[in-house]
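Example 4.3 (complexes with small molecules)
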Amino acid sequence: MGFKLTTIEEFESATDRLLETGKKVGADSWQMRVKNQTPHCKFGEQGICCRICSMGPCRITPKAPRGICGCDAHGIVGRNFLRFTAGGAATHSDHGREICHTLHCASRDGSYHVKDAEKLIRIAGEWGVETEGKDIYDLAHEMSELALMEYGKPFGISRWLSRAPEHTRELWKKAEIEPRAIDREVSCAMHMTHMGCSSLPEALVRQALRAGMADGWGGSMCGTEFSDVMFGTPMPVDTEANLGVMKEDEVNIIVHGHDPSLSEMICEYAGDPEMIALAKSLGAKGINVAGVCCTSNEVAMRRGVPMAGNFLQQENVVLTGACEAIVVDVQCIFPALGPLSKCFHTKFITTSPIAQMPDSDFIRFSAESAAENAKKIVRTAVENYVNRKSDLVHIPQMKQKATVGYSVEAIVKTLDGVTNSQVDVLGTTKPLIECITSGVIRGAVAMVGCNNPRVRPDSAHVGLMKKLIQNDIILVLSGCSAQAAAKAGLMDKQAKDLCGAGLKRVCELADIPPVLHMGSCVDISRMMVLASELAKDSGLNISQLPLVGCAPEWMSEKAVSIGNYVVATGIDTFLGVAPQVTGSSEVTGLLTEGIRDWVEAAYTVETDIDKLCDAMITRIEEKRAALGI
Ligand code: MSK
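Answer. The structure with Broken Fe4S4 cluster bound is encoded below.
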């Protein structure tokens, strides 16, 4: 049979079948909870409820246009938006901090190693650290300390900003959004939004950009770069995606969350002969690890570990009845997994003091005792195989092939083969620029973000991707957007047949799928590096490139922090879910137009997905026209 995408209807009928099992065992589901929570609070949706002090909560209405302190809707919305951003920036950056800490624990004979020494030396060079004659582990420890200092240094701005083109750096300086110490920007955001501090929309939005910058050009970049140093810089690797990757006759361990320090160790011990022998002694044929959410992206890109699903599919893995353990670290984990797992034999294993939940088995994981902790977790999962209830087992036979792992390094290497001039341009983004300027590819979209029940799950991601590739627009993806693509089949190289003639030719020549998997949500920092390299290699400003960002189904605070640093980097960003700012024309006006004066880019919000797609194509074509290409 020829290549065929999996449709949204097929995703949904698989979910419906699983929900029937759920009903049988009395399980709750997000689909039911959405109904209970609808309609949503209009004050919250518009961002005009203030709970920042205990004189309130105050809610803005035509009859009550100011809170008790006198703050108007613009101040309240601006403060809420800034706090939302700060939550996201703190979360991503703390993930980055954990990675820096893990790097500090790396040693030749320990659990964590330096796998990409070249990258470590390159970053050391960027940071002005002497590498000559230094033991690679001494260098790793020195760099990890410097990176940890980035979180609290008293003076100066983020070291990573030096990667950006000069023009962008000047804009940041002029707009006063260069991030200082990472924690300082989060702390400053909380200070500014405390009762009796800022209520001026412009000041609040400016700090929201700066806090986002502390994430993308600070904490997230630490997370991505030092994960690569320890676990390897991703290179193209084949894998599979969707629930069909779970195996009926094996122990299924699902890793979910974000931090690869845990998931890498789980993968390591799931391959341990002792554990495999234990699984076999209990009647299983082996141990199968698969991922959910960004943890899945991390281990898929580096190890080819299959992707069971994205954010709104996390309950589905338990509903298969074939999940021995769902092992989580931090972020995007439904507390619902606790009670749900109790309806099955599944062990819901929490591991981080940052994400502790009721109805879970807490097995504390730390970089210092990683081996011991990971072994215990894998053993717990394997021993649980005998408790599986065969009458509840149903794994939807649905999966697609995917090629993943397109780090900036991998993209540069792979696309070198596309043009005729590859000999002179090895190691630059020039081949990609040539494809764009010649019109073979019209432009690029960086599509990121989550699922959100406000949007039919995955429909916006997949619908937009299909239309964009038909229009010769290449996509770089991360987060749950990437998994939506992989589940649908858009990361199969055969998806080139769905592209316009130009993009199809590029896919054939470079042997790539039309949508490129760049990683997890912290890895959007990779996209910032790619945009910077494209600008430097082309001599253009980032804002001139026919490149836009898009988050059609976003839901988390992290997504807003990401949006803010993507826009602040000069990339127009298109949202399919409205941020909770509509209660203020001033804040909305700043985000959708005003900030363009500071950073040469702004947000577009459009919940009609067809219109959103047209708006992106129009913007890409406008940028091409402005360049005369
Ligand atoms: S996991 S932040 S649902 S992309 Fe990174 Fe997915 Fe969004 Fe979480």
